[in-house]
Amino acid sequence: MMAADETEEMRSLELSGQVGFNSLPHQVVRKLVAQGFCFNILCVGETGIGKSTLINTLFNTTFETEEADHYEQQVKLHSQTYELQEHTVKLKLTIVHTAGFGDQINKEESCNPILNYIEAQFEKYLEEELKIKRSLFNYDDTRIHVCLYFIAPTGHTLKSLDLVTMKKLDSKVNIIPVIAKADIMSKSDLGNLKKKIMNELQSYGVQLYQFPTEDEEVGEINSSLNARLPFAVVGSTEDVKIGNRMVKARSYPWGSVQVENEEHCDFVHLREMLLRVNMDDLREQTHFRHYELYRRCKLEEMGFKDTDPDSQSFSLQEMYEAKRKEFLKELQHREESMRQMFVNKVKETEAELKEKEKELHERFEQLKRMHQEEKRNLEEKRRELEEEMNAFNRRKVAAETLMGQALQGCSHQPLKKEKDKKNFFSLPSACSLTSGRNLN
Ligand code: GTP
Ligand code: MG
Questions:
Q1: Strand boundaries in 25-174, DSSP class E
Q2: What pLDDT score was predicted for residue 311?
Q3: Is residue 435 very low, low, confident or very high in pLDDT (cuts 50, 70, 90)?
Q4: Ion ligand 2, residue ranges at CB < 5 A
Q5: In what order do the strands lie in the sheet with 37-44?
């Protein structure tokens, strides 16, 4: 077999008749049409700036959206998916709105939820790509294809929040800036504002989506569209009768602003560029530029690389081994620090226990002393009681003796019996012997 670099220059051959492979583009188109397309739009802009109205105007329908209030603690993103069909082409359209953007007093964190959302969609796609069983063909792609950035028509130029947000988003998503509610500005003010915005974006190094100009078919129209950035747009879903035609317009006491009139605003240019000319390019740029960058950074972060420092060919096996070793080392390190932490904790607990033991010992000694004191007191009391009991017993014996003698005397002198009995019971010693207080 011939090696690739030895291959002769390719020769062109004429076919003698039609063979049929010229139908390949039609086969591709048929398959794609049957499968349907998806397109995901992110609308970033202050509350009430006209995001929902513009999207409704762009797609000539009414998407159900709720009005946001101005009291959100932080920026929240709401996504809603719709299935649309235009002739035979089916489109799965996802619209993501930012609620509460620019409403907080401290706006430092305003763009983080937006960044996180965009990256989370890339992460989901990367996870699918890295699966062993992938289903990328019918993958539900939620990556943001375009970010319509709504600029308020009220300032002299961009607000710092707009600049910072666009700068942070420009490497993650295709940004198309639009000046919202352009009907409230005069033509000359609008022209000046456009120039100032573009100068500021340029000096701040913000990369906007550039409509591709290399393509012969759309190069010319895209060049003119690039020059019109940022698009000054007006949105309205109201049909107004102008002459004998019904057109989308905003009516004022002094006249009407027609949404699709090029003299009145850039709405038709935005629709032309977004839906009719560059929709596929926006999808491609998302995949090949923004997602590719995210994927590369993520894989590098995880330790993957295409070539080693000596530019030898990349080996997945070697890289896996290196990563495994690194992981084991990290694991050992963590184990060691956990063991050290455990030892320290044990030491601390030991010291605490010793302290407690000492306290308990002191308490025990104190109680022991109190107990001995108590015991001594009780002994003293017992001794006193015993002495009292002895005295009582002695008196009792004496009383009994006296009573015996008295009874003997009575048997000899019966007449004196009653008198002696009285005398005996009136003896003070007898009274005191029977009193409860002395017994106790
Ligand atoms: P939230 O989703 O609540 O943040 O608002 P939003 O940005 O989606 O704005 P929405 O489209 O709900 O419009 C808010 C108000 O602005 C409505 O009263 C619209 O009629 C009005 N509005 C929308 N577009 C335009 C416009 O181009 N010009 C003018 N003058 N008013 C507009
Ligand atoms: Mg809205």
A1: 37-44, 76-86, 89-99, 146-151
A2: 58
A3: very low
A4: 51-52, 65
A5: 76-86, 89-99, 37-44, 146-151, 175-179, 231-232
Rounded Cα distance between 231 and 57, Å, is 15
Helices 112-130, 292-301: axis angle to 10 degrees equals 80
How would residue 421 be classed by pLDDT, with cut points 50, 70 and 90? low
Closest atom of ligand 1 relative to the 69 alpha carbon: 3
Q: What is the pLDDT of residues 350-397, one digit of tens each?
A: 999 999 999 999 999 999 999 999 999 999 999 999 999 999 999 999
Contacts of 272 (CB under 8 A, 6+ apart): 221, 225
For the record, the structure tokens of 245 come out as: 């035609």
The predicted-structure confidence for 106-161, as pLDDT tens digits, reads as follows 777 788 899 999 999 999 999 998 888 888 888 889 999 999 999 999 878 888 88
Among protein residues, the one whose CA lies closest to atom 30 of ligand 1:
181
Is the CB–ligand 1 distance for residue 72 below 6 Å?
Answer: no
* Ligand 1 binding pocket includes 183 (Cβ within 6 Å): yes
User: Both tokens of residue 321?
Assistant: 């081994």
Q: What is the pLDDT of residues 258-310, one digit of tens each?
A: 988 888 899 999 998 889 888 999 999 999 999 999 999 988 887 777 765 56
Tell me, using a 6 A CB cutoff, whether residue 281 lines ligand 1.
no
Ligand 1 near 53 CB (within 6 A): yes
Residue 66 CA, ligand 1 centroid: distance in Å:
12
Instruction: State the distance from the centre of ligand 2 to the C-alpha of 47, rounded, in angstroms.
Output: 7
Ligand 1 and 181: CB distance under 6 A: yes
Ligand 1 in reach of 213 Cβ (< 6 A): no
Whole-prediction pTM: 0.72
- Which is the closest atom of ligand 1 to the Cα of 180? 27
Nearest ligand 1 atom to alpha carbon 233: 27
> Can you tell me the distance from the alpha carbon of 280 to that of 274, in angstroms, rounded to the nearest whole number?
9
Judged by its nearest atom, the ligand closest to the C-alpha of residue 180 is 1
**CA gap 83, 218 in Å, rounded:** 28
For a ligand 1 pocket test, name from 42, 46, 49, 53 the mutation site with the most ligand atoms within 8 angstroms of its C-beta. 53
User: What ranges make up the beta strands (E) of 253-364?
Assistant: 255-258
pLDDT reported for residue 437? 44
Query: Within a 10 A sphere around the Cβ of 200, how many other Cβ atoms?
Result: 14
| Element at 223 (helix H, strand E) | helix 216-228
